[in-house]
Amino acid sequence: MSDYSPGLAGVPAAKSRISYLDGQKGILEYRGFRIEVLAEKSNFIETAYLLLFGRLPTAPELDRFSTDLRSHRRIKYRITDLMKCLPDHGHPMDALQAAVAALGMFYPAKNVENPEVQYHSAVRLIAKLPTIVAAHARMRHGDEPIPPRLDLNHATNFLYMLTGKEPEPMMAEVLDTALILHAEHTMNASTFSGLVAASTLADAYTVVSSAIGTLSGPLHGGASEQVVEMFREIGSVANVRPYIEKKLAAKQKIMGLGHREYKVKDPRAVILQKLAQKMFDRYGKSPLYDIALETERVGTERLASKGIHPNVDFYSGIVYEKMEIDRDLFTPVFALGRVVGWLAHWIEQLKDNHIFRPTEIYEGERERAYLPLDQRS
Ligand code: ACO
After folding, report:
1. Fewest CB atoms within 10 A around its CB: which of 42, 252, 320, 374?
2. How confident is the model over 209-232, as a mean pLDDT?
3. Within this chain, do residues 28 and 101 fall inside the same structural domain, yes or no?
């Protein structure tokens, strides 16, 4: 009874060599590399290789990985047809989860411990997720999906498939960095959910679709969408303080603030804020940015004593809005990055697999007498 920890807070669920987090100091490392260094010097595809295989690739290795990813961008027309049958008003995260679950039927790969199966499953998922998200986003507005272009890099191609035009290079660079920042984050809820599925030896498509479902909730990936909605609801810099005071008095949470692990400002929020600033300097400021800055200021003043500061989702939404990405696509964009972390943990789990089967503390009644229906009041 004494070691029960609600939400498994502080309970190690795995031994891992993938990422390191120090929530007191605001440090995040992927495979021993600081996130600030990767955001500045690497790109999403190289970081994906690093996370999956544990080291930076050589030039030929990166070339092969990149070529494989490009060649797997297309999705089968049946996947497109499947998405056409979904309701227009359905959330894109639910469509993504359904499409990814269906992918597994097209690429049956039950021998999940085989490194070749792991490589090809990982490549297919990282390559196809942007195509699925973009195709669904277009079809729900009645537009035809735009096929992927193999000459464009990962982020540029995604924005192209979404809008039909090649994005400004800086927009694509910022999205690429945002994908790096979202690629991995130790034992978070969606990774844990994916690992539970992985521990049953389910295939990579099942693992990822399970993780996508978990990411969709507002306390996890869904927060970025709600943060932008909150900024809109606040409406003006002058209204920030009254809004926050009212929320706190009602014991409600301010979206985008707080993190189970970080007790200082999330290092990814620091980087995203700099990227937002860079984009606004170039393309003009989002009217929500001043509201965000004031929300951070007042929120920190009121909540820093509890270790509550902006998390990664605090600035990601206003960055994506500037790229003209629809608000309900923010979490799917998060998934385009995080799929790498889920897959890295999937591969690691299979090296020394134990099925997850925690226990529980039973608090219900026992040995009850069964009354026939006509005797129940
Ligand atoms: N606004 C106001 N108060 C908060 C906030 C917040 N955003 N977050 C935590 N608190 C308060 C709680 O009310 C609680 O106060 P109390 O001790 O006086 O009751 C205390 O801080 C601890 O809160 P918990 O919810 O128990 O902290 P936990 O570590 O379980 O939760 C979480 C972390 C879920 C992220 C929480 O901070 C939250 O709900 N934040 C808003 C949603 C959000 O931004 N989620 C995105 C997280 S990042 C990501 O998933 C990528």
Report:
1. 374
2. 92
3. yes
Q: Considering its fold, how many domains does the chain have in total?
A: 2
Q: How far is the centre of ligand 1, averaged over its atoms, from the C-alpha of 208 (Å)? A: 26
In a domain? residue 3: no
Whether residue 185 is found in the same domain as residue 130? yes
Residue 2 CA to ligand 1 center (angstroms) comes to 24
Q: What is the pTM of this model?
A: 0.94
Give the contacts of 93 (CB within 8 A, at least 6 positions apart). 212, 213, 215, 216, 221, 222, 328, 331, 332, 335
Domain that holds residue 294: 223-322
- Tell me, yes or no, whether 143 and 261 share the same domain: no
Pocket test for ligand 1, best of 306, 309, 312 (most atoms within 8 A of CB): 306
Is the pLDDT reported for residue 1 higher than 60?
A: no
218 confidence band (pLDDT: 50, 70, 90): confident
Tell me how far the alpha carbon of residue 32 lies from the centroid of ligand 1, in angstroms. 28
Same domain, 67 and 150: yes
pLDDT bucket at 55, cuts 50 / 70 / 90: very high
Whether residues 188 and 231 fall in one domain: no
**Is residue 248 a contact partner of residue 227, using CB atoms and an 8 Å limit?**
no
Contacts of 78 (CB under 8 A, 6+ apart): 106
User: Does some domain include residue 83?
Assistant: yes
Q: Tell me how crowded residue 207 is: count the other CB atoms within 10 A of its CB.
A: 29
Least confident interval from 6-10, 51-55, 186-190, 268-272: 6-10
Q: Hunting for tokens 């961008």 — which residue is that?
A: 73
3-state helix, strand, coil in the chain (%, to 5): 60, 5, 35
Q: Give the pLDDT score at 222.
A: 83
Residue nearest to ligand 1 atom 3, measured at CA: 253
Q: Is the pLDDT of residue 2 over 80?
A: no
Task: Give catalytic residue positions.
Answer: 259, 313
